[in-house]
Design brief:
The protein has 135 residues and is of the alpha+beta class. Helix content is 22%, strand content 25%. The protein has a six-stranded mixed β-sheet, covered by helices on one side.
Length: 135
């Protein structure tokens, strides 16, 4: 793939877009994900259980997008986390650490005035696309 090629990522392992965007796109050696909230792909509803459950579902959705793009959570180099309430940081961070146990990616975390569907958290990622021998 040349650096000028873009490929849209489609998967049923993450919720369908709720607007005019793709859940992910690859360009060059990278995959860029759209922000993921705690929507269950099959129901399209926010999962119950608060910030921990929503964070876990958002990261599970990201994993599905990355796998569809021939990548994985180990290849994530940068995430951005948007929180409805920055006071949820520690609880979000505990769940986040379950997904990035070693060599975690760079991360920015900010409080947002509002998130889609009144979600508690939204997470987006940039990852390296796997080389065949890396996957």
């Amino acid at each position: 793939m040349s650096c000028r090629e873009k490929k849209v990522v489609n998967t049923d392992q993450a919720p369908a877009p709720i607007g005019p965007y793709s859940v992910g796109a690859t360009g060059g050696p990278f995959v860029f994900t759209a922000g993921q909230i705690g929507l269950a792909p099959k129901t399209g509803l926010i999962v119950e259980g608060g910030i921990e459950a929503e964070t876990r579902q958002a990261l599970t959705n990201l994993n599905g997008i990355l796998e569809a793009a021939n990548s994985c959570m180990d290849n994530v180099v940068k995430t951005t986390v948007f929180l409805r309430d920055i006071n949820d940081f520690a609880r979000m961070n505990d769940v986040y650490a379950e997904f990035f146990k070693e060599n975690p990616p760079a991360r920015s975390t900010v409080q947002a005035a509002a998130l889609p569907k009144n979600a508690a958290v939204e997470i987006e990622a940039i990852a390296l696309v796997c080389k065949d021998e890396d996957c």
